[in-house]
Amino acid sequence: MKKITTSILLALFSATIFTPAHVEASWLSKTWKKVEKSWNEAGTQNTSTETSSPSEGTVRLPQRSDYPSSYNYGYKKDMGLNDIEFVVLGVPFGATMGDIKRSLGTPTYEGTHLRYGGVTFYNGAIKGNITDRDSVRYIIITNRDATTYRGIAVGDSLEQVYKAYGKPIYIFEDNSWFYGMFVWGGDNLFGIKFKNDGKKVTEIFIG
Question: What is the C-alpha separation between 43 and 50, in angstroms, rounded?
Fold first, then answer.
């Protein structure tokens, strides 16, 4: 159900990238509440199906100790994520800041980055205000205003992440789960990082 709903939202927002729009940023929370309501209703209708599936905690989740502390310099690992995996709120990775505003409307904040509720788009610059021509370099999600392409949101359990993505290609010292591509010993790292408190996702970093 999550994937179907997410796909509908992606199609709706992508179709408006080049169409001027003036939408209050509060639509994020309102839209999410409607989506969650539909999920909850669907969950109630399928209680018998869900109760037959394994409960949380029955799966042995990956641990930091499962991974080496380091690799040989230049070692590359890539799980081959497609471009669609990096789309957030219908905004494709690399879109310009102008495209984002035309698609999502007036941001909650605009300065060194664009923020829409709990979703922030950065151009990678350390300082200085962005321009409409600047491209998205990374995205941070801090609440349930958005999900990943596979339907994972802040607050979801690590078991849900594991079921959606499988085993992380790496777990960092802060216990963040990483999916994507990295070359050890350099700055060549690109993918999705799920920060967590050991049980649930607390922040999602894409880029």
Answer: 8
Burial of 141 (0-12, 13-18, 19+ CB in 10 A): buried
Contact (CB, 8 A) for 170 and 178: yes
Question: What stretches of 108-172 adopt beta strand conformation (E)?
Answer: 109-110, 113-116, 119-122, 138-141, 170-171
* CB neighbours of residue 28 within 10 Å: 21
| Residue with the larger pLDDT of the pair 3 and 97 | 97
Q: Report how far residue 190's alpha carbon sits from residue 118's, in angstroms, rounded to the nearest whole number.
A: 21
Q: 130 near 112, Cβ under 8 Å? A: yes
147, 6 contact by CB (below 8 A): yes
Sequence-distant (6+) residues with CB within 8 A of 164 are 148, 150, 151, 152
Instruction: Give just the sign of the alpha carbon dihedral 181, 182, 188, 190.
Output: positive
Question: DSSP secondary-structure letter at 84?
Answer: G
H or E element: which one contains 41? helix 27-45
Q: Amino acid identity of 60?
A: R
Both structure tokens of 65: 């100790």
CA 170 to CA 179: how far, in whole Å? 7
Predicted confidence (pLDDT) per residue in 99-134, tens digit: 999 999 999 999 999 999 999 999 977 678 899 999
Element spanning 194, H or E:
strand 189-196
